[in-house]
Amino acid sequence: MDLSQFSLVYNSLSFGIATFGAATAFFWLNRSQVDRRYRTAITISGIVTLVAFYHYFRMFESLGNAFQVKGGTVSATGVPFNDAYRYVDWLLTVPLLVAELILVMGLSAAETRSRVLTLGGAAVVMILLGYPGEVATDSGTRWLWWGLSMLPFLYIVFTLYTGLGDSIARQPEGAKGLIELARNVTIVSWCFYPIVFILPMIGLATAGSINTYVQVGYTISDIIAKAGYGVLIYQIALRESAGMPADTRIHDIRHGSATHLIADGDIATASRILGHSNAYVTLAIYGHMLPHASSRAMARIGALHDAASATLRDEEEAATSEDDGDQGEG
Predict the structure, then answer these.
(1) Cα 222 to the center of its chain, rounded Å
(2) What is the rounded distance in angstroms from the CA atom of residue 17 to the CA atom of residue 20?
(3) 24's torsion region: left (phi>0), alpha (psi -120 to 50) or beta?
(4) What distance lies between CA 169 and its chain's CA centroid?
(5) Could you write out the DSSP letters of every residue in 97-136?
(6) Which residues are within 8 A (CB) of 90 and not within 5 positions of it... i.e. 6 or more apart?
(7) 211 — alpha (psi -120 to 50), left (phi > 0) or beta?
(8) How far apart are CA 300 and CA 310, in angstroms?
């Protein structure tokens, strides 16, 4: 491994640590933004990224212990790089990733339990079958365990596309598209793992040793499959909680809330909720709403004026009728 390759692996692991740490904070700090039904899914998203944060930190340490850099030259110290951290991480997090998608779909308790156990169990078997091949040094053994681990992988893919197809079709319109996207992201990101696994078998890496392609490939896959996927789960939970249309953005919610407050003339409250330094900033951004608010106010005043005029006319007509009656009697 030369210096550029070492730096690439070193920086990718460092980036993974930062990404998973930030994602954990984001998920747990924003749990309260979704309905109680979906908070378990968001909590699990944070657990997944926290577990990944810990194992990436340990891999980062292991890389530093396995190699030393002197004068621009990278040399092995004799301490082996512990790549088993990845498989321990996957053993814990991959079943939880499956559970996140199931939990956010709002299925019945019985179906949720059944899907989590069967798909989560298949994910565990997939990881356990992959590890013997990962540490093997000959291609024949690696191909054998790769093929065996692909069996539960294909079962998971088949179930996500067929077994859950009807359940996804029943989802609210505001969340259906995102759930389909989350399912596709799960499958596509997971496809990177078996592809990276076979790199040593096709001559792009050395079996049983640390390799730049393998380490960077696994890191990219982990970031997409855990942090990126978790953000999708959070967006699904938000939309299912609020029943929002499919194309609703966070900016739309903010703008809509500000619009309603300003239309009611409550500029001070709008400024405070939006986090503006003062009401002048709010007026500078949302001032175009004031003419509409004024028009509505004038319309209400006009309606009140018309109602008052009608009341006066009725009173005048009643008084005139009474006077005519008095004169007739006289």
Answers:
(1) 14
(2) 5
(3) alpha
(4) 20
(5) HHHHHHHHTT--HHHHHHHHHHHHHHHHHHHHHHHHHHH-
(6) 127
(7) beta
(8) 15
Tell me how many degrees the CA angle 118-120-125 measures, rounded to the nearest 5.
95
Please enumerate in sequence order all residues whose Cβ is within 8 A of that of 190, keeping only pairs 6 or more positions apart, or say none: 153, 156, 221, 225
CA distance 330 to 328: 5
Q: Using one digit for the tens of pLDDT, what is the confidence trace for 279-303?
A: 777 767 766 655 555 566 556 666 7
Q: Tell which phi-psi region holds residue 208, choosing left (phi > 0), alpha (psi between -120 and 50) or beta.
A: left
Q: Among 40-49, 157-166, 251-260, whose mean pLDDT is lowest?
A: 251-260
Answer yes or no: are the C-beta atoms of 186 and 225 closer than 8 Å. Answer: yes
Residues whose CB is less than 8 angstroms from the CB of residue 224 and which lie 6 or more positions away in sequence, other chains included: 185, 189, 192
Q: Which amino acid is at 168?
A: I
Please, what is the average pLDDT of the chain?
81
Calculate the CA dihedral of residues 214, 217, 222, 225 and round it to 10 degrees.
Answer: -130
Q: Average pLDDT for residues 232-240, to the nearest whole number?
A: 85
